[in-house]
Amino acid sequence: MATERIQQAVNALKTTRVRMTPQRHAILEYLFESMSHPTADEIYKALEGKFPNMSVATVYNNLRVFKDVGIVKELTYGDSSSRFDCVTTEHYHVICEECEKIVDFHYPGLDEVETLAEHVTGFQIESHRMEIYGTCDECLEKKKH
Length: 145
Ligand SMILES: [Zn+2]
Ligand SMILES: [Zn+2]
Fold this sequence. Notes:
Elements: H1 2-15, H2 22-34, H3 40-47, H4 56-69, E1 73-77, E2 80-85, E3 92-96, E4 102-105, H5 111-121, E5 131-134, H6 137-144
This protein binds zinc ion (ZN) (2 copies).
Organism: Thalassorhabdus alkalitolerans
Keywords: DNA-binding, Repressor, Transcription, Transcription regulation, Zinc
InterPro entries: FUR (IPR002481), Fur_C (IPR043135), WH-like_DNA-bd_sf (IPR036388), WH_DNA-bd_sf (IPR036390)
């Protein structure tokens, strides 16, 4: 499953003539295999052993390239650094308030909210974002002990 999606991402990059480098490939692999909405820093830490010459800036630049091609979505949460999501189809996020883990939650898009917001405010609505907060199963388990 991950391999297939990595291949699709590689193909998408090819059509835009973005050169595939071992680093780029490793970042893609990490994104699709971890499915964890990592920050650039987390990816850097996971891969620095393999690529000692790579910097956080390199990781960040690569993520920007992926974003431009439409392979990843950037999620910003206030002041903390951006997280990157390799699932670009519509979905919502459930966020653990203890460890900040983000889990995908598939639920039909709340299009009515956008329609109603348009009616009520007169805005031309482009998108919406909904986040659900709680405590993840792992953190709940830790609390018990
Ligand atoms: Zn947690
Ligand atoms: Zn997601």
